[in-house]
Every structure is written in C-alpha cells, then in structure tokens.
Amino acid sequence: MKPGIHPEYRPVVYRDRSADFAFLTRSTATSDQTIEWADGNTYPVIDVQISSASHPFWTGKQRLLDTAGRVEKFRQKYARRRPQGR
Predict the structure, then answer these.
(1) How far apart, in whole angstroms, are the C-alpha atoms of residue 48 and residue 31?
(2) pLDDT of residue 29
(3) CA angle at residue 23 from 19 to 24, to 5 degrees?
(4) Would you say 14 and 26 are in contact if contact means Cβ atoms under 8 Å apart?
(5) 30, pLDDT greater than 60
(6) What is the bridge-based pairing of β-strands 21-27 and 34-36?
(7) Long-range Cβ pairs for the range 17-26 (8 Å, 24+)
(8) 55-86 pLDDT tens trace
(9) 8 A C-beta contact, residue 14 and residue 25
(10) Cβ of 46: how many Cβ atoms within 10 Å?
(11) How far apart are the first and last CA of the chain?
C-alpha cells in the first residue's frame, strides 16, 4: 500500500440504540462521539438506525402494515368529487 493516501483503520464501536446493542469492530469511519468499552478503553462510537439486532429479517419479528387503512385514507384524500346537481 502506498503510505499517506489511505484513511486510518482503527477500532470503532457501532451502536444500535433502538435494540440496546453495540459491537466493536475495525473501520475507517470517524466520529466525534466516544464510548468507554468493556475492556476499559475509549473508542469512537457511531450510532446506526438498524442492525442485525433490530432488523425484522434477523429477528424474525415482522411488522404488520395496515394496508386497508392506507387504501381507505388514499381514496378519501384523492376521491373525485362530483359537482353539485349531478
């Protein structure tokens, strides 16, 4: 590798707050926030919206969508209104 052109590859903690789940890995991602890990060291932390701990595919928990309610809402919003007298 050519020196000086690659970003620093270092330990980083990825945290999924919705599932209260975090893991330590190596990455080139940067963050101004830090967290103290179980080993006593401080690492940069990157918050993610979804991870394997919260994704329905990995957890087996599917969300039910109220499609009937959505269709009715759409029809009410965009229904053609008949002019008065017809």
Answers:
(1) 12
(2) 92
(3) 160
(4) no
(5) yes
(6) unpaired
(7) 17/47, 18/49, 18/50, 18/54, 19/51, 19/53, 19/54, 21/51, 21/53, 21/54
(8) 666 666 765 555 567 777 888 888 776 666 65
(9) yes
(10) 16
(11) 78
Q: Which amino acid is at 28?
A: T
- What are the tokens at 69? 């309610």
Which of the 8 DSSP states describes residue 40? Answer: S
Amino acid in the structure at residue 12? V
Q: Give the SS3 label for residue 48.
A: strand
2-19 per-position pLDDT tens digit = 888 988 899 999 998 888
Beta carbons of 22 and 15 less than 8 angstroms apart: yes
Distance CA 56, CA 63 (A): 8
- Residue 73 has which token pair? 């809402």
Q: Is the pLDDT at 42 greater than 90, yes or no?
A: yes
Rg (CA), the chain: 24
Q: Which two tokens stand for residue 77?
A: 């919003």
